[in-house]
Amino acid sequence: MSKSNDFSWELGLVLFLFLSAWLFWQLRFLFRHYRSCKWPSVPATLQKGSLGTVTIGRSWHAASFLGYEYLVEGVRYTGFFVLYGDKELVRQLNESLAGEPIQIRYDPADLGSSFLASDYNPLFKGLSAKQDPSLLRQAPPFDFKSTFNTRLDQ
Length: 154
Description:
Elements: H1 3-35, E1 41-56, E2 59-72, E3 75-85, H2 87-96, E4 101-107, E5 110-116, E6 128-130, H3 133-136, H4 144-153
Antiparallel strand pairs: 1-2, 1-4, 2-3, 3-6, 4-5
């Protein structure tokens, strides 16, 4: 057996393990998102986000990484999602959505875990809204505390 055959087998194993871990992570997110349909919903308030880009496959898209805050049992929690699509519309919505109400669903077993009640909201004007961890990891720095404090100071 040649060394190149040994290396290709090892490379194949590493690739298989990497893809298996990625698939597990994605399926875990999808199942959790699916289960969230049964979670209770509460109103949340959208917060101004950070502008950036997301890479999906081989293409990139303009994106706004937005936050929201919600109250459950008198405690304030926050969530995070990305809107992506047309650059000008992304920029416009990043500025105009702050303070708007939106429905979210939260996990009764983990009150800080939440999802948008619907990825399709008229507020988003046709842009894609996602909470996929692979997209959220591409976010520029975002500071919920300063956004929240700025809103309180007004």
